[in-house]
Design a protein that fits this description.
single chain, alpha+beta, two-stranded antiparallel ribbon, 13 helices, 7 strands, 46% helix, binds flavin-adenine dinucleotide
């Protein structure tokens, strides 16, 4: 478990002191507030704060004065309409702030999502913990032979052990050197901001990450996708579960139209129409490139 007893006590204390509020409260996410959801070997995701609920989305769409009196079925229909037609600003009325602990190489992918507010743990100010991501045996895989951006067969036996030994040894040696270089009493050493520079990219960092629901859905669509690297995907999946509890109607629409849906090119639509009319269409007669055809066939089959 990634939390120390002191950290857990802080969370327990925060959860033990509820306050009344006139603001919209989403019961589903209240259960998650402050709770650390473990991810990878030392990582976590937890909700620090949130604003809004499914009702806030429909309120904004209708620019209403109060909570509104419409039935849930109307709200659901409106949310699905908004999602279907990319009417995205009502979703921006909901916000959420996460605390995330993640390996630096995952953070590098994550930080590319610019539409969030981030504050990261300062390794200039503080000393990093001796915590490194070491993949579980089933994630220790060779380079894929068909996908340049992916992994293939899982390593086994001596090869798995050899790679694991290298990962562990390098991490421990780098951290020993980091500690050894830090300025200490009686020895000049290096400043924290410099001593950190030889630490490997599998060391853990932490940040607060705040975004709105529209941009969170964009992040989740890209990072909960099967094409995303496993190590960021597991964070996205943990967040999906939280968002499903927070805004169940919006999440269901997102799951249906974005996660479960596909977008079609004009050529793909034409191929489907021709197939429905009984015509046999091949890549050569489709007007699509080989890559486009492969992806199309991956969804629609032969
Ligand atoms: C599977 C996968 C593989 C990837 N591989 C690579 C790779 O090899 N190399 C690499 O460098 N990156 C790679 N990326 C990162 C990718 O290119 C994007 O940078 C990342 O997914 C963030 O997406 P975004 O810009 O849409 O998100 P955000 O930054 O959150 O932006 C959301 C949307 O806001 C708008 N926006 C935000 N900022 C601007 C701006 N300054 N100007 C104009 N519009 C803006 C855009 O419409 C954007 O789509 C990969 C991502 C994925 C999911």
């Amino acid at each position: 478990m990634p939390l120390t007893p002191a950290q857990q006590a802080e969370i327990d204390e925060a959860r033990a002191t509820p306050r009344p509020t006139l603001r919209a409260v989403a019961e589903g996410i209240e259960r998650h507030l402050y709770v650390a959801h473990p991810v990878l070997d030392h990582g976590l995701v937890r909700v620090i704060d949130y604003m809004g609920d499914d009702g806030a989305i429909v309120q904004a769409a209708r620019v209403s004065y109060g909570r509104g009196t419409r039935a849930v079925s109307n709200d659901e229909g409106l949310i699905r309409y908004l999602m279907r037609h990319w009417h995205s600003t009502p979703f921006e009325m909901c916000e959420v702030k996460f605390h995330v602990k993640l390996p630096v190489f995952v953070a590098r992918q994550w930080i590319r999502h610019r539409t969030a507010n981030v504050n990261e743990y300062s390794a200039r100010y503080s000393i990093l913990d001796r915590e490194f991501y070491i993949p579980a045996p089933e994630q220790l895989a060779a380079q894929s032979t068909v996908n340049n951006q992916g992994r293939g067969a899982v390593l086994s036996g001596d090869e798995a052990q050899r790679v694991l030994d290298i990962l562990r040894d390098d991490a421990m040696r780098s951290y020993d050197h980091y500690e050894g270089m830090l300025s200490q009493e009686g020895q000049q050493g290096l400043a924290r901001e410099l001593a950190r520079m030889n630490l490997p990219a599998n060391i853990y960092t932490q940040w607060y990450w705040k975004t709105d629901l529209h941009n969170l859905f964009h992040f989740l669509r890209l990072r909960a996708d099967a094409h995303a690297q496993y190590e960021i995907r597991v964070y996205a999946e943990a967040m999906c579960r939280i968002v499903a509890d927070w805004v169940p109607l919006a999440y269901a629409a997102f799951e249906d139209y974005r996660l479960g849906g596909v977008s079609l090119s004009g050529k793909a639509v034409e191929v489907l129409k021709r197939r429905l009319a009984g015509e046999t269409v091949t890549q050569e007669t489709s007007g699509m490139s080989k890559g486009e055809w492969r992806e199309f066939e991956g969804v629609w089959g032969k």
